[in-house]
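Hi team,

As requested, here is the filled-out complex form for the C2G run. I kept the field names the same as last time so the parser does not choke. Let me know if anything looks off before we queue the next batch.

— J.
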Amino acid sequence: MIFLSVIIPFDTVERYLKDCLDSLFEQNLEDCEIILILNGNKENVDDLLNQYPDLNIITKSFDQRLGVARARNEGLKIATGEYVYFIDSDDYLYKDALVRLVDVAKETHADLINGERMGTAFIRERFEERFTKKNRDPMKKGKLSDMEFAMKLLVGSKTNKKEVLSVLHSLIKKEKIADTLFDENEKFFSDYSFITSIFPNLDTFVGVENAVYAKRNRDDPINLTSLNQEDHGDPFLSYSSAYYDVLEVVNDLNDKNPQEKYTLLKDEMAYTFFDYYYKVFGPNFLYSEDDNWRGIVFKIMQKISYEFNMDYLSFFQKREIKAFQENDIKKLTRFIKLRVNYKKTIRVFKSRWRFKTFIYFRYYNKKPINSKQIMFISFLGKFYSDSPKYLYEYLYNTYGDQFDYVWVINDRSVEIPGNPKKVKRFSLKYYKELAKSQYWVINGRQASRLHKRGTQKIISTWHGTPLKKIGLDIGNVHTRDPNIKKSYIKVAREWDYLISPNRYTTDILRSSFGYEGDILETGYPRNDVLYNATPEQIDQIKRDLNLPMDKKIILYAPTWRDDEYFDAGKMHFNLNLELDKLQDALSDEYILLVRTHYFVADKLDLSPYKGFAYDVCRYDDIAELYLISDILITDYSSVFFDFANLKRPILFYTYDLEKYENVLRGFYIDIHSEVPGPLLKTTEEVIDAVINIDDLNKEYSDKYDEFYERFCSIEDGNASKRIVEAIKRDG
Ligand code: C2G
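And here is what came back:
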């Protein structure tokens, strides 16, 4: 008899399934079958499955989407293992999570052996890195008994707030499941009835420490929801009613046959519910303006309040729970208000940025605005570059000291002509100058917690003609913040002017930000220099960078990938271009400048390619790099729209085109037919294209002209001037 059957329902997102299977493969489990229920999936996963010849994968396919309950049942029907284990296809195991459970199962033969489920927004690699780095400790067993710890894990960690019980990450003896199936009519909560149905059969439980299962929080609440993010009504009502349903069943079971396992389970459920009440529900209750809702939930909480074990509660917590029992909604509101405000005050003083924001609103924002002051920021203060730089230089050269200029720049040693005031982003001085400035010139989104006031105006230059979908048009947001789409609209509502380089961008900016304000379709200030620079200036850039003057230059400037983040705003990037091959083939004639996107946090090591490849990631202004480059290689970055102003050749190294196009972002134009250069998939193809660049120029000549006409024809080196004049006309 096989020892273990792992059941995985799969309907979508192949790369998540890959993480899942990789992590299973790394467990090196013998005596294990993996039952994969393919249902309603559009992706062909055969190639993926062929990558695991050593895994015993049994697939069962269905054309239609079955739903998780039915898919798991299909798995259960054919499972032959002594134990059954459920994992979802978008989740994965941390290190040896499952082996640990299996070892304990072999040793103890317990009926249920389980580990911890931890919510995460990270891709697998990053989860592991962060886990080790930040030392986020898994739950400890401490003095708890095997059964007590197992109940804690079954009900879930505090990160899975709105779940009562989960079947995931438990080894369950198949004979104890017998013929029990998941309730296929229950879309969301079939785990609960499944567990409570088999619960009477389970006698021995062991919870295992340090066996962590990563539960992926998908991060787009609008387009790519996971089951527990789907909107199934008010979170409190759905959690409390599920809690109550489970409680009733457990009470019934206990009445019929009183046992410790039922009491332990009930205590654990109540404890987790209380935690949710205290941290999430309490503040929501306080701030809600819906008296009807408040009335309903008060009654429900009143009923549940009798389940809490008062011995574990602090004095203040007890007061609150008693207010429910005394039916005193006013008293309750007062108590919650007191503790929420207390916590807020502590937070303001504990966190530097909260403290500074507090000072900004309460103090700096009460001081007068300087009608002559303009503040500039480019790429989060990382560079002196982009349209804010060229608008600034135009203003400074034209109006000199008639204005007071402030630059937000994190490295204050960066030289800026005219000696403007320099402040570091999010420093106290930054807030002070922000509050005083009449104009904020920004090339991205301002922090959503900051708001302009009175006569202040925001000029948003944005930072590129979009190829890849942006803002509200992105189908599947992979960032950490689930509310990012709402914040796009909120932030754009504060802009007074939005700069656009062409009609195409104007239309997209309107829809992708829901923006209704003024758009100045003037061309980009950052492209002025591409028309105005002299040959001497161009040579000087090369000299400043210590580049050989006798070689032609290729600039490789790829963009970032939404699924490769490892911390807020920090991305990872794998250089997929094989530099050794490029060096062998091209270094007689060319050098290569490598510039990753500014989100990418990895440091490149180009030392093996000394004399051929140069790291220009930290160089402030990419426009200057365009000026010295003979060929651009990019992928889906907006850089080629700007580079095209120079009418020099562009190659697209799109090794992961399918993923980028179909899964990560999607594009506004047809990249296959509308871009002015070839799409290349391998380093060899890139080399070939560079060697035959003259032929390619001829081949793409008509397409390039069309492209230039559509995206670059407004540009003439005077965009900054047009913008300043338009704003002056408005007063
Ligand atoms: N950039 C750069 N180096 C790179 C990539 C980008 O300096 N290797 C700069 C360029 O000025 C580019 C801008 O960052 O135009 C935006 O980069 P994209 O790769 O296009 O990506 P993103 O930041 O997501 O912005 O509408 C444009 C989109 O919003 C894209």
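Two things worth flagging: DSSP finds 29 helices and 23 strands in the chain. The two ends are 83 Å apart (CA to CA).

Thanks,
J.
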